[in-house]
Design a protein that fits this description.
single chain; alpha+beta; Glutaredoxin
């Protein structure tokens, strides 16, 4: 599973990354978490509001920081 955190590296982006890492650990899944901070790369996803969570190439959340449980739920659905 490839998880991308899209954003400039702000506090919300860092919080999203921490929560995503926690969700991955809680679920015990094999995932690579990448930070995407280049604006051109972010815009390629069509994201207008950061932070954003992309799982296996699909935008799952944008413009807010979801809870760890919500991220875990998203990741679980991506496994099936």
């Amino acid at each position: 599973m490839i998880i991308k955190i899209l954003g400039p590296g702000c506090t919300n982006c860092q919080q999203l990354e921490q929560r995503a890492r926690q969700a991955v650990e809680d679920l015990g899944v094999d995932a690579e978490i990448l930070e995407v901070t280049d604006y051109a790369d972010i815009m390629a996803f069509g994201i207008m509001s950061t932070p954003a969570l992309v799982v296996n190439g699909e935008i799952r959340i944008a413009g807010r920081v979801p809870s760890t449980d919500e991220i875990a739920s998203i990741l679980s659905k991506s496994l099936s």
